[in-house]
Write a structure and sequence with these properties.
The strands form four sheets. This protein has a five-stranded mixed β-sheet with strand order 3-2-1-4-5. It has a four-stranded mixed β-sheet with strand order 6-7-8-15. The longest helix is centred in the middle third of the chain and has 21 residues. Helix content is about 30%, strand content about 25%. The chain has about 325 residues and is an alpha+beta fold.
Amino acid sequence: MTPLPEAGRAARLAAARAAMAAAGVDALVLRPSPDFRFLGGRDGAGFLVVTGDAAVETGDPAALVPPGARRVGVDPEMRVRELFGMTIEAELVPASAVLAPLRLRKEPHEVAAVERAALRAEEVLRQARELAWFGATERAMAARLRLLALESGCEEVLALRVAAGEHTARPAHLPGGRVINPGDALAVSVCGRWGGYCAEVARVFAVAEPPEDFEAMYTVVVAAHRAGLAAAGPPAPARAVARAVGEVIDASGYGRFAAAHAGRGVGLGPEEGPWLGEDTPLAAGMTLCLEPAIYVPDLFGARVADVVACTDSGPLVLSGGPPPLQVLDR
């Protein structure tokens, strides 16, 4: 990740201090995390402590918390042993209450970084289409997918999904020993961090030939994606995107099989605001992962995911967008 310019860091710290004052937070203690990187922290530098007049990276954060501090915002990714090790005598609250609103709208260079990450993720899945899938296990193909991501410059692979056949109907499925056979539906996704910013892309394939009724269901998911994208223009509320996705899936008859969530924000973290089930008004600079899905238990499922940027002229897909159902021939 390119270091944050000093002027940009100063502006973010000023905004963070104003938000701290409004929330009655006397200090922030951040470990290496998206919030840490947002305020210019360097990976491997210990903790970042932000007070009203300083921002210092240290291995001993408790020593830098002002005496008499009443409320301290701690990183939501803080580990239990780190919390207990700080021995801070103050009310501990999530730092995200202060920083999450500041991270909602990305600066132009951040949107460009998210776009680069999305294109890398898309390219990984493009290359995956050329692999030999017949007779391989989910686990083996996930390992190959991970290697492709790392070769693309991915700094951290955050999540991989390879699910075949009936496993595509399990949203939380982890790649296992199931062999991929002709006639299987196949769900593949990669979520990672490139250049400090995160992106996730998910695609659906059929192996040799699609199962009966699968292509029809897939077209519903693609139509829901299209409807969600059309609703993602500022200043619509984020909830409007989820509503548009849900209306298409409900009208198809698959409503009871729809995924609980239509998407979320992405940026320095893989999951952040705006959340597409909330009333946050969309605004230029917000970057989303739009991810409609249908899961029919014990049969099959389909999920597509793309990164979308909100702009003053409307939503813009930063990854390729879901294609017609692709059939793998090997």
